[in-house]
Amino acid sequence: MKVLVAGAGLGGLCLAHGLLQAGVDVRVHEREDGPHSRYQGFRIALNAHGLAALHACLPERLHALLAAVSGPMAGERRAVDEQLREIRSLGTADEGTAADRYVLRQLLLAGLDDRVEFGKPVVGYTERADGTVEAHFGDGGSAVGDLLVGADGVGSAVRRRLLPDAEVVTLPGNAVLGRTPLTERFAALVPGFGTVVHGPGASLLLGRMDFRRPPRLAAAELAPDVRLPDTDSYLRWVVMPSDSLPAGPRPWEAVRADLLTLLDGWHPDLVDLVRGADVVNSSPLTVRYAKPVPHWGGTRRVTLLGDAIHTMPPSGGQGANTALRDAALLTRSLAAVQRGETELPAAVESYEQRMLAYGFAAVAESLDRLPEFTPTR
User: 12: buried, middle or exposed (CB in 10 Å: 19+, 13-18, 0-12)?
Assistant: First the structure.
């Protein structure tokens, strides 16, 4: 059996590892020119589903490295005002771990050098009469396999072909995502799981990425063949204004100036946090969610995973976890096919029915939690 994966994000790479361990021939085709070609996002929270999926799919030799380059994520979730006076407790969280998306992606690329091809965007596909599927690339080339998995994100070309009526909604307004090197002063802003600041005209979400060990050094000791970035611990923040900031691409200096104007009069620690942001790892943030879709029926040689089908706001902390959960579930389904225990169409449909149920439940939960983080007008 040969599986083609469109997209080398967290879900697609996790799937590739799981399938390789199951003896399945898998090839990943990624639109980006290389593993370092774009900004890779921010700290994510790995919950029980996400961690279980990574442990199930990754080779055991990488488990210790995964633990070493993650960070603690437990304690109180609190809401404060712009002068850091506590408004209320949002409850506590005592499970899960913090991971840097870029570091995690580099770890997931380990051992897949001959399986991942960059600069190969999947722009469409053809289901062939012989029961195979042909993926079409942006450069005019193609590849044939037994199954195509669209793990190509919110703008998925595979989804547009498979489900042309599926809707992705862009929420009004815009936000800015940033990160600032973690110092003792800034660490005090997040004494527990996370902090939400509600101030005039904006909300500010704060979370720590405090690596247990520096990623590059941890890799050198625990898995010398793995190259991880020399990334320092940081505080991740998101500013969500009640009124939209100017639209369109702009220099970071202009964006930061708008944010500092918006935060004028706020506690000096919060103002200096934004002022000291890492320019390379700060950017505008668009919040989207997918509307639920019923199962599309029929026996197809194409399926979807992660944001390609159930993209969701970050408010529930479930986007990456659900994509990883998809990868582990699809791995188990396809491993059964590889062992001769079931047929491919039945295995894929079983995966899809379960994935659609928990995936869109996660979308709904994330939408329900969004008001906890958004500013009041």
Answer: buried
Tens-digit pLDDT profile for residues 142-167: 999 999 999 999 999 999 999 999 99
Question: Do residues 204 and 197 make contact, with C-beta atoms less than 8 angstroms apart?
Answer: yes
Q: Which two tokens stand for residue 306?
A: 């992660």
Provide the 10 A C-beta neighbour count for residue 44: 25
Beta strands in the chain (DSSP E): 2-6, 25-29, 43-46, 75-81, 86-93, 97-100, 116-117, 122-127, 133-137, 142-145, 147-150, 168-170, 175-181, 194-199, 202-209, 234-241, 283-285, 288-290, 302-304
pLDDT of 376 > 80? The answer is: no
The dihedral through the CA atoms of 151, 285, 49, 67 has a sign that is positive
Instruction: Examine the pLDDT at 39 and tell me if it is beyond 90.
Output: no
Instruction: Please compute Rg for the chain using Cα positions.
Output: 21
Which residue in 303, 308, 306 sits closest to 348, CA to CA?
303
**Euclidean distance between CA atoms 328 and 358, whole angstroms:** 14
pTM of the model: 0.94
Q: Per residue in 207-226, pLDDT tens?
A: 999 999 999 999 999 999 99
377 Cβ contact list (under 8 Å, min separation 6): 242, 243
Q: Considering the chain, what is the average pLDDT of its residues?
A: 92
pLDDT computed for residue 107 by the predictor: 97
CB 182 within 8 A of CB 210: yes
Which two three-digit tokens encode residue 196?
């939400």
**Higher pLDDT, residue 247 or 309:** 309
Q: Tokens 């942006």 correspond to what residue?
A: 138
